[in-house]
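Our platform keeps sequence and structure together, in a single record for each protein. This encoding replaces a full spatial description with a residue-level series of whole-number codes. We quote a single record here, exactly as it is kept in our systems:
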Amino acid sequence: MNILLLLLSLAASSPGLCVQVEPLANVRVLGGQYFFEGERGAPTGNVSALVAPALVLSESWTLLPALSGEYQGTKQVVDLVGSGSMFQERAAQRGGVKAVFTPAGSRWRLKPSLSYGFELLNETKDERWGRGLFDTRRWVTGLEAEYAYAEPFSVRLSYDYCFTAFPNYTALESEAALDFQGQPLARELVGEHVLDSHMHLITLAGTRRLWGRTEGAVSLAFRRQTFTNQALVDASGELRSETRGDFGTAFRGSVHMPLELTPEVRLLGGLGFQVFGNASDQASYDAKDARFMPGYYNYIEFGFEPWLKASMGDEREPITLSLAGAWTSRSYSHRLVQDSAGAYQGETLRQRTWTLSATLSYPLAPRLSALFSLQHGQASSNQGFQSFYSYDYSATNYLMGLSWEY
């Protein structure tokens, strides 16, 4: 955060430097309620704010600082995929800056970036902020090279480095029942800071026109993640001197097409898809059952996301209705399922989830809109043991409030 303020101060105070500022800000205040498996949560609210001005320093240099913060008291349906369903409240803040350098007469753009953010997660309403077991701190820096072969279409190659820390994480087998994914605590996750990790990400991406007004985008990403304090576990449940390393590969693609039914009614529809695979050298050892499972963190995931957005009325302040869906299927190649009593079976774990959402934005005044949102999601799996963590569930939430944009 101090780096962001320093760069802004230098840009504003440099003699002879004429800075053109293009402001951008968004504030949302929403209230709503959350329903999980027939149980109703208390009405609460979400607040988020984003400030991201563009500072045009010269014809070649543009600075893009950003500062965002949010409080989430009403859980989103998408939070249920993974550990999000374990937390009652969430607060996050992130600050960063990206520079865009465009050499005169060139189609190339270079974009170095730097950011820092933290996330606070409370497992209970009476837990003190900043003391959560799974609170995180994250530092990210990167460099992207973009070639605009035919505006607005381009190809991009980027490298990002990320360090994620869990400053409060300390787990003892005698004091914790679950890990951060809702699983019974395994031998490899016992200790201090065993979730801290370094991540290196290389991404190749591109966009192009496909046919007519239809456009497409694809990306291929390679991720190497190392856990510097998480020792590998062996077949006897002992910890080795080597530490864990994961390798992930992701392929994503999307297509979208605009359609104007009348001058007053405009549609934009699309379909996204992704395939992600994770390979890890870490095994898992369940001390309670003396069960050793190599390849425990290996999985492959497929996903599809259709969406449709309708804009009606004035193009500058339209009424918009957005409909979206998402379906994912994750399969673990070596993680065994358990029956209702906790006994391991011969099958490996797989889970399917889908969500549907609808959002209406209605303009009330210049830059001010009313928002209404409804989400529903369901998940199913072949896991029988769900005493600590739900793999089969349905959830619904609604939110309503105001959005201000500048």
In short: The longest strand covers residues 239-262. DSSP finds one helix and 23 strands in the chain.
